[in-house]
Amino acid sequence: MFIFLIGMMGSGKTTLGRQLAQEIGYAFVDLDAYIVAQQGRSIAQLFAEGGEARFRELERQALEELVENHGQAVIATGGGAPCFFDNIGFINHHGQSVFLDVPVEVLANRLITQGQEQRPLLAGKSRAELISYLAETIAHRKQFYERASYTLSASEQRVQSIKKWLNL
Ligand SMILES: Nc1ncnc2c1ncn2[C@@H]1O[C@H](COP(=O)(O)OP(=O)(O)OP(=O)(O)O)[C@@H](O)[C@H]1O
Ligand SMILES: O=C(O)C1=C[C@@H](O)[C@@H](O)[C@H](O)C1
Ligand SMILES: [Mg+2]
């Protein structure tokens, strides 16, 4: 079985995914890290060289490869991954999806302290610009994130809630 974590940049997919995988004895794969290792380029370089459109193609290919090459895994997706092509349909077809629903203010605080330069879509933005970018992006992406099989709010004991929900 595959458990896909979806949500905005900074919502904690990588952090929670790693903890959850360890706790339930699944492999853990971070989709962004997988693409970076495969391409030998940072996310910022990939955006600079091929544009966002090329990155989205690589992201879709990577999703397909992961599902083909693993039996079960926790997969932390990139923030935009479920929102391009029919990726959310693909994700829900191959496993369970969990949306990490975190308020904009909390995301902004985490992303400001955690290096915007690694995330090309956020580079060079002031705090106010970051907040409006996040709010606009969420407004558009909500329709995809809301198709997750399960939604977790920021305040929950997330590993325990997911385990309980999946009977693991
Ligand atoms: N539950 C939490 N409480 C407080 N801080 C957290 C929590 N989860 C993650 N963080 C912090 O928020 C930042 C972003 O977390 P993380 O990299 O896991 O997010 P992400 O969803 O994988 O983002 P991206 O889509 O950009 O890969 C990190 O600095 C991390 O330490
Ligand atoms: O929200 C997004 O569109 C992104 C999130 C990151 O995980 C990376 O996949 C990349 O920086 C794009
Ligand atoms: Mg991540």
Structural notes for this entry:
With 168 residues, the chain is α/β, with parallel strands linked by helices. It has one domain (2-166): Rossmann fold. It is built from 7 helices and 5 strands. The chain has helices spanning 13-24, 31-39, 43-69, 87-94, 104-113, 127-145, 158-166, and strands at residues 2-6, 27-30, 73-76, 95-101, 150-153. A 5-stranded parallel β-sheet has the order 2-3-1-4-5. Helix 1 crosses helix 7 (158-166) and helix 5 (104-113) crosses helix 6. The longest helix is centred in the middle third of the chain and has 27 residues, at 43-69. The relative contact order is 0.21. The model has no long low-confidence stretch (mean pLDDT 94).
Keywords:
alpha/beta; 168 residues; five-stranded parallel β-sheet; Rossmann fold; binds adenosine-5'-triphosphate; binds magnesium ion; 5 strands; binds (3R,4S,5R)-3,4,5-trihydroxycyclohex-1-ENE-1-carboxylic acid; globular; single chain
Tell me the quaternary state.
single chain
Strand order of the largest sheet: 2-3-1-4-5
- Structural class, by secondary structure, is alpha/beta
- Portion in helices: 55-70%
Which small-molecule ligands are present, each listed once?
adenosine-5'-triphosphate, (3R,4S,5R)-3,4,5-trihydroxycyclohex-1-ENE-1-carboxylic acid, magnesium ion
- For the secondary structure, the number of strands is 5
How much of the residues is beta strand, in percent? 5-15%
Count of domain modules: 1
Q: In the CATH scheme, what's the topology name?
A: Rossmann fold
What string gives the helices and strands in order?
EHEHHEHEHHEH
| Main sheet properties | 5 strands, parallel
CATH H level, superfamily name = P-loop containing nucleotide triphosphate hydrolases
| Rg calculated over all Cα atoms | 15 Å
Mean pLDDT: 94
How many helices? The count is 7
Shape: globular
Unreliable stretches: none
Highest CATH level, the class? Alpha Beta
CATH architecture annotation name: 3-Layer(aba) Sandwich
